[in-house]
Amino acid sequence: MSRRLRAQEIDLCVASQPIHGESLEATQLFEEEVGVAFPLDHPLAGRASVTVGELADQSFVTARNGHWLRRLLDRLFAAHGLTPKIVCESDEHSAIADLISAGLGVGLVPAFARRSATRAPLAWIPVDDPGCRRSVTLYWGADSHLSTAARLMRTTLAGWNWTTGEPHSR
């Protein structure tokens, strides 16, 4: 993505994981907690929070290697000397939620996704670990000559209140 931004093949990129490279500019759009989604009838579904250790024996539905969600899961477990038990991988967030809801396993879900109008019936429980977060950032090439439309998009995205789903008050 870094190369494509610098080459001006794309104007803007919204990413949930850092994009490294020279000649890039960025602004953080929001940071949020990532919790664990459980089927409603799961024994841990009623908890106020869970630890990574309590998740060690759980079966996980998650994204494939390289996706920010999978990197976070692997990093959380590795910090505790553990390896997650992956039972299913999907690139589609709604499919992950549906598989969790159907009882195939549990999985990490960002707080933003909980506000989706099409969410599956799940229990969302915070993970008692300060590293269980994601940062969503907008990137563009520092030397790019952005079109009026791209500049307007950048201004709109950077000025959006991602918590309320409305523009920031002026």
Question: How would you briefly describe this protein structure?
Answer:
The protein is of the alpha+beta class and 170 residues long. It has helices spanning 2-6, 68-78, 93-101, 111-114, 148-158, and strands spanning 12-15, 24-39, 59-62, 85-89, 107-110, 122-126, 133-141, 160-161, 166-167. The protein starts with a helix and ends with a strand.
Number of domains: 2
Our measurement of the CA-to-CA distance between the termini, rounded to an integer number of angstroms, reads 33 Å
Top CATH class of the largest domain: Alpha Beta
Instruction: Indicate the proportion of strand residues.
Output: 25-35%
Mean pLDDT: 90
State the CATH topology of the largest domain.
D-Maltodextrin-Binding Protein, domain 2
Rg result:
18 Å
Walk me through this protein's architecture:
This protein is an alpha+beta fold and 170 residues long. The two termini are 33 Å apart. The protein is built from five helices and nine strands, in the order αβββαβαβαββαββ. The longest helix is centred in the middle third of the chain and has 11 residues, at 68-78. Keywords: DNA-binding, Transcription, Transcription regulation. GO terms for molecular function: DNA binding; DNA-binding transcription factor activity. InterPro entries: LysR_subst-bd.
